[in-house]
Specification:
157 residues, mainly alpha
């Protein structure tokens, strides 16, 4: 049996920088890629498509439809909540997967998953997920990510 394919370390500082420069387009790419990498690695994680397409369609479709079609009740726009619920569930699965990967190595779980439910702090746990997934891939490949942002902001460790 072959060894599972490891993902690419993407340090938090680069994800934040590239996402800012690209007006979050890189963040969408990042989410898609890490989900695909995890799927190749463990064979169980959701793909990037399964994680993101329902979110994108679920958020955009109701908004576009009620704005462009005069026969659609504006209340239909509230169905975007379903897309938001989907991405929260996808995030929950991702955080749980990262914790499981650490647990499988005998390492402490890095993410406190319930933080994702608290507005404001959910961003912190998202940043921590980026960092710790990158660190996992780096440790497995014996490389250093050199993530200066995490060294500068202790809450991210």
């Amino acid at each position: 049996m072959s060894e599972p394919k490891l993902g690419k370390p993407r340090p938090l500082e680069k994800v934040v920088l590239y996402s800012g420069i690209s007006f979050l387009a890189y963040y969408g790419y990042y989410k898609w890629m890490i989900q695909d990498e995890l799927r190749r690695y463990d064979g169980e994680s959701w793909s990037g498509a399964k994680s993101l397409i329902p979110f994108i369609v679920g958020v955009l479709f109701p908004q576009i439809l009620w704005r462009l079609d005069p026969d659609v009740n504006p209340w239909f726009g509230w169905f975007s909540i379903l897309g938001l619920a989907w991405i929260y569930y996808a995030q929950f699965r991702l955080y749980r997967t990262v914790n499981q990967m650490y647990r499988n190595e005998g390492w402490d779980e890095p993410l406190t998953i319930w933080w994702m439910l608290i507005p404001g702090i959910n961003i912190l746990v998202g940043f921590r997920q980026i960092h710790y997934l990158s660190e996992y891939w780096a440790k497995k490949q014996n490389i250093d990510t050199g993530d200066r942002l995490v060294k500068f902001v202790p809450l991210l460790r």
